[in-house]
Design a protein that fits this description.
The complex is a heterodimer. By secondary structure, chain A is mainly α. Chain A has helices at residues 33-38, 43-59, 66-91, 99-117, 121-146, 150-173, 187-195, 208-225, 227-237, 239-244, 249-275, 286-296, 308-327, 334-358, and strands at residues 197-200, 203-206. Chain A has a single domain, classed as Orthogonal Bundle (ABC transporter involved in vitamin B12 uptake, BtuC), CATH 1.10.3470. Chain A has 14 helices and two strands. A two-stranded antiparallel ribbon of chain A has the order 1-2. In chain A, strand 1 and strand 2 (203-206) form a beta hairpin. Chain B has a six-stranded mixed β-sheet, sandwiched between helices. In chain B, strands 2-1-4-5 form a four-stranded antiparallel β-sheet, with helices on one face. A two-stranded antiparallel ribbon of chain B has the order 7-8. Chain B is an alpha/beta fold. The chains are: A mainly alpha, B alpha/beta.
Chain lengths: 361, 263
């Protein structure tokens, strides 16, 4: 392990940060704090978020009120809860196009199981967790086994789930929505956990904001401080290198898909317990919004780079824009335009960051 | 073939064969790796060098012949198993994950951890400190181990990978074309670390198509051509001129020289 080889003449005598330029033979990057900050994945999104915030603060009088902030945070959290695991998955180099409808599937399973079995709603919630995790594991398993691109695999799951959501709901309930479970045992408690409102200083905040913040914290901790986080970056950054040094590439990927499923479960339960019924056609298209939030937040579409905090900022930009347009009393049709422009700008910025990171040869 | 019975080789291949479908990728190749020695594998593109590496690194199993690790006949099932048995492989292209910081790369796949239960986490301080110290010992003074490893030069990246293998207690170091993409000076730097690893008591397998680099450091030379072994020499059996000639295809080179001669 040790036995210091004598050929290594440490050049520390000649390169002790005295000169800034070319003391050693090899090139050295100057790690000034400013430059390091510029290389953070969230930087672009933070700048963007500030700009969007100032923009709507000026454009809409009601935007700065506490109640508006609460509305914006709620909108952000419903996207953010999914954007976190989707961001992790993207850092791991993959997509999940089934994420949007998986939320609906999770809600439907929970609702229908409880209703049909006349069980405590918590039984349905538990069954839904297992079933949703199984869908995630299925995505990961098919992907790692077949080595097909995740675009194809999860597009397949997306279509199958969309069909199953509508098909099963019509088969069991004869309509496109489920029966209400509001009068069933356990509903008040489940409502408190997944869909309640917390009043802080006279302002109502939705509980999903707490879930969102907790998920961001846990995901950041996993990414930055655990072995699994190291593997996620490596699998997305260069999976052959990761495999060569013994990283369990398949296990990491399957875990990431199950993470998305876990997010879908939380979102799904929120959906169910805030409205008592679930519309089986919902969720289509949301998968792209999660991906957009992650990309605006600094995740590279090619994998290996990004952060959970970034995805939260991305979701916050989404929330500010979607609600800000309403507060400014504009036509909401413009929302998609803003989102598209933001996505383009963010991706350009990310590409520039990456070029800098990979240069220097 | 020089069969040293006196001591057991760290890795010994005899008469190893590998087929991909109907393609004969490798046939009848034998080599030995001893502690404190460098075994060079030379061959042109398509000679079977990569296949040979993949067998030693555990990426592919062999179809025929035998692979012995410290005298014990085995078949490696995965790169992880090869690593656990002390065989570390440094690939030319896939040595590192470019966007990840140097310290994360250094410990990738073998991260030290502290804490218990759900709070088990990487020992980041130790990882940063160790990376800096180990690289310093190799003569690379990084001010910032947080910089993405993609910002280092090609030679430095190879050195990080070599330092990593040495640190993790590899007994055998397999290097895939470590100097292929490098300039003269950078190649020299890398060869210095290869020699350093040898002096530290490791057995080294150096894959290259540059006989000059091989002869500078090598103790044994295995020559491959089109999947077959065309030579297996110890250093005292062969001169650089002969090695170069055989490497370039022996008589083919004479023919080529004849053809290229100016009228």
């Amino acid at each position: 392990m040790s036995a210091a080889p004598d050929v290594t003449r440490a050049p520390s005598e000649e390169t002790t940060r005295a000169s800034g330029a070319t003391a050693s033979e090899e090139r050295i990057l100057h790690g000034s704090p400013l430059r390091r900050m510029l290389a953070r994945p969230e930087l672009g999104s933070v700048v963007g978020a500030i700009a969007v915030f100032l923009f709507f603060a000026l454009a809409a009088d009601s935007f700065l009120r506490a109640a508006s902030l609460s509305t914006v945070l709620y909108a952000s959290s419903t996207i953010g809860i999914m954007a976190v695991p989707v961001a992790l998955l993207m850092i791991g180099g993959e997509f999940d196009l089934s994420a949007g409808v998986m939320v609906t599937s999770s809600a439907l399973i929970s609702s229908m199981f409880s209703y049909q079995m006349t069980a405590n709603v918590w039984v349905g919630v538990g069954v839904s967790l297992l079933a949703t995790l199984a869908i995630g594991a299925f995505n990961g398993f098919v992907l790692t086994r077949t080595k097909l691109p995740s675009f194809i695999v999860t597009l397949g799951t997306f279509l199958m789930l969309t069909g199953m959501n509508l098909g099963f709901t019509k088969l069991i309930d004869s309509t496109v929505s489920t029966k209400t479970i509001a009068d069933m045992e356990g509903f008040p408690a489940a409502h408190a956990v997944f869909a309640s409102t917390v009043t802080v200083g006279g302002v109502d905040f939705k509980i999903t904001i707490v879930w969102w913040i907790a998920l961001v914290a846990v995901a950041s901790w996993i990414l930055l401080r655990t072995r699994a986080g190291n593997w996620i970056f490596a699998v997305g950054g260069n999976q052959d290198a990761a495999r060569a040094v013994g990283v369990p590439v398949h296990r990491t990927r399957i875990g990431l898909y199950m993470g998305v499923a876990f997010g879908a479960w939380i979102s799904g339960q929120h959906l169910l317990f805030s409205y008592d019924v679930v519309q089986s056609g919902e969720g289509v298209g949301n998968e792209l919004i999660y991906i957009i939030a992650a990309v605006i937040g600094g995740c590279l579409i090619t994998g290996g780079y990004g952060s959970a905090v970034g995805s939260a900022v991305g979701a916050f930009i989404f929330g500010m824009t979607s609600k800000g347009i309403v507060f400014a009393e504009w036509n909401p049709d413009w929302f998609k335009f803003f989102l598209g422009a933001m996505l383009l700008l963010a991706t350009l910025l990310n590409a520039w960051v990456r070029k800098r990171a990979e240069a220097g040869k | 073939m020089s069969q040293t019975q006196a001591r057991t080789a760290l890795v010994e291949l005899s008469d190893v064969t590998k087929h991909y479908g109907t393609v004969r990728a490798l046939e009848g190749v034998s080599l030995e790796v001893h502690p404190g020695e460098i075994t060079c594998v030379l061959g042109d593109n398509g000679a079977g060098k990569s296949t040979l590496i993949k067998i030693i690194a555990g990426l592919h199993g062999h179809d025929g012949g035998s692979l012995r690790i410290e005298g014990e006949e085995t078949r490696l099932a995965s790169p992880r198993e090869a690593l656990d048995r002390g065989i570390a492989t440094v690939y030319q292209d896939l040595a590192v994950v470019p966007l990840m910081p140097v310290w994360r790369n250094f410990f990738l796949g073998s991260e030290p951890r502290k804490g218990v239960g759900p709070f088990k986490r990487m020992d980041v301080d130790l990882m940063r400190r160790t990376t800096h110290a180990e690289l310093l010992r190799m003569g690379i003074d990084l001010r910032d181990v947080d910089q993405p490893i993609g910002t280092l030069s090609g030679g430095e990246r190879q050195c990080v990978a070599i330092a990593r293998a040495v640190y993790f207690g590899a007994k055998v170091l397999v290097l895939d074309e470590p100097t292929a993409a490098l300039g003269v000076k950078q190649s020299g730097v890398v060869l210095k670390y290869v020699a350093a690893a040898r002096d530290a008591g490791l057995g080294v397998v150096l894959i290259t198509h540059n006989p000059h680099h091989a002869y500078l450091v090598g103790d044994r030379f295995v020559l491959l051509r089109r999947g077959g072994m065309v030579g297996n020499h110890t250093r005292d059996e062969i001169t650089l001129e002969e090695l170069t000639r055989q490497m370039a295809g022996g008589n083919d080179l004479d023919d080529l020289r004849h053809e290229l001669r100016r009228a």
